[in-house]
Each structure stands twice: as C-alpha cells, then as structure tokens.
Write a structure and sequence with these properties.
mainly beta, Neuraminidase, Immunoglobulin-like, four-stranded antiparallel beta sheet
C-alpha cells in the first residue's frame, strides 16, 4: 500500500497550451499573444473562437492566480478552455449600478482571488463576478457615469487603480471587505503621458511590485508607472516597448510568476513497512537477518524482540532494522517463535507502531 503526501503547493498550475510567461495581450482580431518584455517580441498563441468557430468582440482579459484565462465581451464573461482551445460563455454581466440604466457596456476587468472585478465603459459601474457560481453583483459607481473608463484596472497595496481615457488619468479607490461599496475615491490626472495617447490596459509588473505595465491604444506602446511617484509627477512613466506591427490592442493581462524561493509541488511516496515472519541466521547468505522487505526509510526506531516466554532477547534504537538472531549478550537464540514490537517514525513524519510474530529457524 502506498501513501502519498504533498509537501508544498504554492506554485502556479502550469498551462496545458500556454507557456508560463508574465504578459499577454489581445488584439482587435481576437488573437491572443504572449509578450516578451526583454526583447519586445510577441508570440502568437491562438485565435479566440467559441466551440462553433465563431468569434466574439472581446474587450479585455484577466488571468487568475492558478493560470486560468477569462475575457469579457460587453455584457458577457468567457472562459478559455486551454485543452480544447476555445472560449466558453460562463455568465452574463447584463446589469448596471446606475439605477437610471438597466445595463452598461463593460470594457475592463482584472482578477482578485476567485473573482473578477469589472468596470463599465462610459458608465461608472463596477461589478464583482464570482467565478464559483458565475454570477455578477454590483459594487458601486466609480464616477457619475459620463467618464470613459475603457482602460484597465490593477490592485496595489490595498488600493485599486482604474485607467480612464476621457478624462485621461487614473481613478484610485478602495473596496470594503464585503465587496459591497467603494471607498476613498480620488482622481489622478495624467493628460500628457505616452505621447498624449489614451491608456488602454493596466497590469502589475511581476519584476517590480512598485511598478505597473500600461498599454496605449494607438500607437501600441507598453510603458511603466512607478506607483511611489505617480501622484507627484508624470515623469514616473517611461516607455518599455513599442509594438510597431499592431494597429491596436484591446486588452492585456499579466500572470504572477512562480516565486523561486518557494519549493515546487513535491510528491513523497511513503511505502508501507513490511517485515518478514521467518528468517534463518545459518550463514548461507539467504535470509540470514531479520530486516525490512519494504519501506525501511524510518527514523526514531525502538525495536524490541521477545521469546515465547515473554523475555526480551533483543532491542534496537538506531536503524536500519536488522537482527542476526543473537541475543543482546551475543548468544545465539534457539530455533523458536518470537514476538516483536516496533515503534518508529516514517518518511512522512508519522509515528507508527508495528507488532508481529517471527519464526527463527537454523
């Protein structure tokens, strides 16, 4: 019998069809790319179609901590099935936090735990989409409803930052613990950033927790914001890459990298300890000692062997388990039946006791 124990499981689940990288973007033709920020190059992943081969107007994307890809399309949420290579509609976001409107068009999203945070474009509604039951609820209104919030959203040190295009800048706010209301809303104007072009996406830069990646709509530039300076000067923004071969990008997302200081998932096999019930210490080299047949990776052992009269004839407190048939006084034991009691700690760090009978034959 095998027992399995999983020691550490803090690494991200690996993708079946997408290599682990940190930054992805979606173009206006529903193509998904991974992007290398070191050499400013992109790699085509797939064209996002449903199971019938139909495309949908996808406006933004989010990646959860376990590497799952989600997309929004105005008033719907899609999940990307990486094994089947198609998107699946999983829920509707056909609602508005504005009591005067029955619906809002949603353009931006990000993942927070097992939920999506979704923002309306041209409407200040912010929704929470629960990925456990695929349902949306209203959190509140970020603006009066006249601002264009077509940009992205990111969380940093307890605050959320949502990018707007008209007016250009960032909305900074908090969400209460129950995710039912917005708090501490402020606006940071950034009218002259990225050559005057509007912000499209806002994603955390995995290489520096104090920075965020932003993407302009036209031309497609990937730039960096330093959050420690963002409220002081627009000079904290610098261009990283210019994606010259794309007319526009509709959405972008970054994936949290594996922490190199955390050990990967390790599978440890703890075999059942099996001891023989007979041995013959006659010096012929065959079964001369009482020792484990299987599972001898033990520590803290305490072995005692008794004769048929209940007298202790052998004891051992250090491994491996091994008795050559001699008593503790180095006298050979007689051919007879014996009884053993073994207390030990196995490789899975579990304290166990094993008892059994043993036949010694010369």
């Amino acid at each position: 019998m095998l027992r399995l124990i999983y020691i550490v499981c803090f690494t991200l689940c690996s993708l079946t069809t997408i290599a682990q990288t940190n930054f992805y973007f979606l173009d206006s033709y529903h193509n998904l790319y991974e992007y290398d920020l070191q050499d400013c190059s992109q790699n085509f992943i797939t064209k996002l179609l449903d199971s019938n081969g139909v495309d949908h107007i996808l406006t933004d994307m989010a990646i959860t901590d376990n590497g799952e890809f989600y997309f929004i399309s105005g008033d719907e949420v899609y999940h990307y099935d990486q094994e089947e290579d198609y998107i699946i509609e999983i829920g509707s976001i056909y609602l508005s936090c504005d009591p005067q409107l029955s619906n809002a068009y949603y353009n931006s999203c990000t993942s927070v735990g097992n939920e999506l945070l979704i923002i309306g474009a041209g409407n200040g509604s912010i929704l929470k989409f629960d990925l456990n039951n695929n349902s949306a609820t209203c959190i509140g209104m970020l603006t009066s409803g006249n601002d264009d919030l077509s940009g992205g959203i990111v969380e940093h040190e307890g605050y959320f930052y949502a990018s707007g295009r008209s007016p250009a800048g960032l909305y900074k706010f908090k969400i209460n613990q129950t995710y039912t209301a917005l708090e501490e809303i402020s606006f940071i104007p950034m009218s002259d950033y990225i050559q005057g072009y509007s912000l499209l996406s806002l994603q955390m830069d995995s290489t520096n927790e104090d920075k965020s990646l932003i993407t302009s709509h036209k031309p497609v530039n990937i730039s960096s914001i330093n959050f420690s300076q963002i409220s002081l000067s627009n000079s904290s923004i610098s261009t990283i890459c210019i994606v010259s071969n794309f007319q526009n990008v509709y959405g972008a997302a970054s994936k949290k990298p594996t922490d190199p200081s955390v050990e990967p998932l390790t599978e440890v096999i703890c075999e059942e300890l099996i001891l023989p019930n007979i041995f013959s210490p006659n010096g012929d080299g065959i079964n001369d000692k009482f020792r484990a047949i299987q599972g001898d990776s033990l520590s803290e052992i305490n072995l005692k062997i008794y004769n048929r009269y209940g007298m202790e004839v052998y004891s051992q407190t250090e491994g491996p388990i091994e008795w050559d048939g001699k008593q503790s006084a180095s006298n050979a034991s007689e051919s007879s039946s014996y009884y053993y009691v073994l207390k030990y700690r196995d490789y899975c760090d579990e304290e166990l006791v094993k008892k059994g009978s043993l036949m010694l034959i010369y």
